[in-house]
Design a protein that fits this description.
Helix content: 25-40%
Strand order of the largest sheet: 3-2-1-4-5-6
Distance between the termini: 116 Å
Number of helices: 19
Largest sheet: 6 strands, mixed
Oligomer: single chain
Length: 748
Amino acid sequence: MKNRIIITSLFLCSLFFYNTLLANNFNEKSIVIYWDASLSLTNKDIDKELKFLDTFLKSYPKSNIRLVTFNTSRTSDKQFTMSSSDKSLLYKTIREVKYDGASDFSLVDIGGTEDFLLFFTDGRNNLGSIKSKLYTPRIITISSVQRINKKFLHETAYYNKGYYVNLLEHDIKKSIAAIKENRIMPKLIFVSDKDKKSEENLIEGRVSNTEGNPLQDVYITIKGKNKSTITDQLGNYKILVKKGDVLVYSYTNMKTAEVITEIDNYIDVTLTRNVTDLDPVIIKSKSEAGMEMVLIGDRRVSRRSLGYAVNNITSDDITEANRTLGESMAGEFAGVRMGNNNDAGQMIIRGFSSFLLTNHPVFIVDGVQLSRSGVDLETKVDMNFIDPNIIADITVLKGLAATNRYGSLGNNGVVLITTKMASLKLKEKDKESNESNDIVYKSFTSPLNITKKQPSNFYLMLEKFESIDDSYNHYVSRLNVNKDNVSYFIESSSYFFDNNDQKKAFRVISNLLELFPEDTSVLRVLAFHLEKHGLLEYGEKIYQRILEISPKDSQNYLDLANNYFDSKKYQNSVDLFQKMSTTKIHQVKSFEGIKSQINNDFKSLLANRNQTWDLKKVKKSNFLLPKYKLRVVTEWSHPQTEFEIQYINPEKHFFTLSHTKETNGKTINNEINQGFLSDEYLLSELKSGKWFLNLTVPESQTPNKKYPKFLKVKVYTQFGTKNQKLQSYLINLDTINKNQIFASFTIN
């Protein structure tokens, strides 16, 4: 009996030891932390994120930790253990992270052998994507800021056996419990009309706030099922359900709404702020034949006004019943509020910007801006200024699309109207500036000296420090107060480029992508400078981003094609030039404004061809490269850019080619309508000797820190011959005081 007790005791002790060993092994984990240090995360809730991390690590107290911080490059890569001193050092290291530059997710290696990968980020990827791997750690994505890419955060965790924790919405302890229990997240499903099954009903709709603004990244989940989706940037969504399913709509800092589905095809929901209790909300539209109506606030409008229509309508959309412009536009444009009584003063495109002055948009008819009347809320602005029967096209520009093209004029949005007569005329080539072949020369009286660029104050300040690191620390200290100043990032990056620290230089200039991700004028400035410094791969990414934002603008295709050429991605360049030259890009109405550039650049590309290129579809005429003694190509960053270039010959006589509203207003309007920002000048008969180029700007031009106007100039001599030479210049027009001689070249 005594021996049996001893044996039993030994067995129990062994079992206890074995279980303890298993528990310890379970708690011993290898963890890698990827900490996104890009500028967009400057205002993250660092205390809440560290609280999550500390609570998580307490569940695995004997773990080995690797911390990787990154933005445009990996800024640190350190190992830590979970001793008290090392743990404190880990948190101290995280608190000292400097947030600067854009994010490059290609730096996140998910193919490691660790047990967990904790990814602290907003999910807003700008430069590179995560490379998928067959085997990965469990990935936990964590965010603590309002502006996020929820789809990326959710799906990255879901498809890697992990979990997504939004610290603005989720309880930390409950989230970590879900992670430890290997709880499965709902799968995000995005459907179309083709996906509809016989036993399921396709529901679509729009989610907005009480002000009528669309909400992006709202979770729509089928209650009790592992199936959900999220809204797009217009607040729209689609999901397949069965009758009786309950849809749950949840969004940060908003009341959660529940909707019981019936037979309706359209469900639109308005979410209100900061209420924790569930409140069923059902806003439905008819799915029967005929006009589909939905309720918004105190009025019913057509479904087309809720984000399903494009921002452009043609004469086909304007019926005889539309007696006024207001009636023609009503319900056709997402996010546009027409008001009542055919009053443009009540038309709101971008929300209220002023309670005292006008909030209605600018109207531009055939390129001519109508005077903006109605300077206060009491004055009616009649919309009977045009007969709908003569309208060929109406386009509404809002947000950055309006301000990019029209500056402060577009603050409240822009309505572009093209009449049927003007539409026909635009199809004809504009010969206004090319009718005369005679060049008028004048005498140039100033000294012929190339103007040396003077360093900016930003540049000079960084020069005062003894080391590059000290200069960089000073730059970071002034970053927040200069976030609206594009020149701050351009000039600061120039200092680091000039001092051969390309890593810091690129990090600095990449902030323009973080701060102005949808602003094509700023992004074009960024692309110009990346090309200048030989960062063609990143320049390509920026041109692709611009093209995604503005697929109707012809300039964007030419820029990308030339970037492919410079990067020696010859087949990509050939394919894109072929599409432009044969007008097979359906988004663009016309390439007429840059047709000559396309032809010459395409032929120049083909002059470098070899047998590996696929040229089967290229016309024979494109292999005949023309010859010019001088070819000058100018491209500007902003549509409202004015300048003149004086060509000074060896005898100090000059002629002027102008790009100003005063002398070329019609041409500039045509550029805006067709979406191009460049021109070329071809000259075959020139005097031999040394020539100079002098750049002048209008006296009325004033510097704009948010939209500095840059001019890129390419000067080709002996174009099309074996002696062809190219000189490139990038000039900030805001730094020019009346004029600047910027180039010289020799004509043989």
